[in-house]
Structures are given as structure tokens and as C-alpha cells.
Amino acid sequence: YFASGCFWCVEASFEQIEGVVAAVSGYSGGTKKEPTYKEVSYGKTNHAEAVMVIYNPKVISYDVLLDIFFTAHDPTQLNRQGPDVGKQYRSAIFYTTEQEKQKAQAKMKALASKFDDPIVTELKAFDFFHEAEDYHQDFEEKNPNNSYIVNVSKPKIEKVAEETPEKIFTERIH
Predict the structure, then answer these.
(1) Residue 84 in 3-state DSSP?
(2) Residues in Cβ contact with 76 at an 8 Å cutoff, skipping those fewer than 6 apart
(3) What is the pLDDT of residues 84-97, one digit of tens each?
(4) E-strand spans in 72-162?
(5) Angle (nearest 5°) at CA 31 between 50 and 11
(6) Among 6, 11, 53, 74, which residue's CB has the most CB atoms within a 10 Å radius?
């Protein structure tokens, strides 16, 4: 479970990756069991917009998923990503196993020197995930000409594609 700004960007960045079976937009890390987009976007539940990434470990490793996560956003921005401001847009990894936690810690340590500012990615044990409303699922694919998608999401998706070309489904890029 990964959070790194607007979930439309995160979901689309992962969906183009070979071995990712599904990427589902939703909410994690907050206090309400069934939050709505309106509640989360107004910062009322402490949730982050997050994405559940279901993947085939025979095709792609968790380490590569971490690489993609750290490529697709700026992990030094506290409670924001680009134009999106608020704790709901924080950088976070919600790990499900001790091994995931250790891998994430090692990746953050290894990447620390790459950035001018400290990495502020929250590393938190997974509690629960609430799937976002249907209209958020596959938003980038369904709305390729949306101004947010064109100006914010596409550059992130393209950056992931450029930096991990061997992992991209060629038919997904558009």
C-alpha cells in the first residue's frame, strides 16, 4: 500500500508495470473505517490517498515496486505533492510484513543521498484500506484529457516509464 500524492497518479504509475495485477485507489492510515472522498480531501479523517498494489512476485519484486514508488514522486515533500497540499497527500508506505518494512527502510536509507532534503516518507504498519469511489478507479485511463491528468499525472507516469522501461507494458503507454 503506497501513498504519494493524488491517487490517480500513483495508480496509473503502477498499472503500467508488468507484474502488477491491479492498482486500486483508496484511503489508508486514517481514523474512519469508511471514509468518503469529500471527508479525506478536506483532511477530516487523517487518511492518505493511497493505492493498493496487487502484484505477481514471480514477475516483479517488492524492491522494484519501491523503486517505482520513489521514482513517481518527491519523498522529501511533507504533506504535499506538487499542487496537492495536505496530510491526505503525504508520502507513505503502509507495510504488511516485517520484511516489507525492512526493505522500505533500506531503500530510504540507500536513497537518502540522492535528495537535497531528508526523505519524509511515513512508514507505518498497514491497518486497513478503504477502496475509493468507483469514479476514482482508472481515472487517468478514463479521462486522459483532464487538465490535472495532462499537467500533473502524465509527467509522473512518463517519468516512471522512462526510468524503468524494461518493466513497462508497452500497450499501456498512451
Answers:
(1) strand
(2) 115, 116, 117, 118, 119, 120
(3) 999 999 999 999 99
(4) 80-81, 84-85, 91-95, 122-125, 129-131
(5) 5
(6) 11
Q: How far apart are the C-alpha atoms of 62 and 103, rounded to whole Å?
A: 8
Cell, residue 140? 487517468
Environment class of residue 2 by beta-carbon count within 10 Å: exposed (0-12), middle (13-18) or buried (19+)? buried
Which H or E element spans position 39? helix 37-41
pLDDT band at residue 173 under the 50/70/90 scheme: very low
The strand pair at 129-131 and 122-125 is best described as: unpaired
pLDDT digits (tens, 9 = 90+) for 112-160: 999 999 999 999 999 999 999 999 999 999 999 999 999 998 888 888 8
Q: How many CB atoms lie within 10 A of CB 75?
A: 26
